[in-house]
Every structure is written in C-alpha cells, then in structure tokens.
Design brief:
The chain is mainly α. The chain contains 3 helices and no strands. It has helices at 2-25, 33-38, 47-76. The radius of gyration is 40 Å and the shape is elongated.
C-alpha cells in the first residue's frame, strides 16, 4: 500500500506543477500565451483555440488533482486487516463519592391553634 500512496502523491505533485505552469501562462486580461502566439487580435487563426485549450486544461488538471486526492484517501484510509494489540485499560482509582451534606431542611411552621368552642 505504501507504493500506491507514493505513486499517487507523485502524480498529484506532477499535476499540481502542471496546473501552476498553465495558470501562470494565462493572462487575466486576455493576453498571456494566446497573445504571444497569435497576436492581440482574437480574429487571427489559433488564438481562440489556445484560450480554449488553456481553460480546458486548467479545469481538467484541477479535477484530476481532486480525484487523485480522493482516491488516495480512500485507498490509504482503509483499516488494516490485522487487529492492533489491545492494551489493558488503565486502572481507574476508585474514590469514594464526596459526601454531600444537604442543607438543614428543618423549617418550622408556626403552630396553628384551632379555636376551641367553649363548653356549655
């Protein structure tokens, strides 16, 4: 699995370098590589096709990089077939729970005196 991971990382790096080169060759104002080969006029043959090629290659290389990264995550993210050695859980010290003293709930209610009817 290590060789596949290394191969994918090399392919991602190559695609990234190519993407940087293509993006740097473009001019955001319409010049760039297309104006170098065909002049500034878009009416000349090949200028528009160069712009289309640069744009398509930018999107394609971006998609290739994303797909390669996802593939590398899926391939290398699988758990190994051998179960790792389980460690003994650490012994937790048992401490007696802290005694909670409830506040004195001895509220006295005033004695209610009921009027007693006088004897006749």
């Amino acid at each position: 699995m290590d060789t596949i991971f290394i191969l994918l990382m090399v392919l991602i790096m190559i695609a990234s370098i190519l993407l940087v080169i293509i993006v740097m060759a473009q001019n955001p104002k319409g010049g760039g590589l297309s104006s170098t080969f065909g002049g500034a006029s878009p009416a000349q043959f090949g200028v528009q096709r160069t712009n289309d090629f640069m744009e398509k290659s930018t999107w394609t290389l971006g998609a290739v990089i994303i797909v390669l990264i996802l593939i590398s995550v899926v391939i290398t993210g699988k758990p190994t077939t051998a179960a790792p050695a389980q460690q003994q859980p650490l012994k937790k010290e048992t401490t007696a729970p802290a005694k909670q003293t409830a506040p004195a709930a001895t509220t006295t209610t005033p004695a209610q005196t009921t009027p007693v009817a006088p004897a006749k």
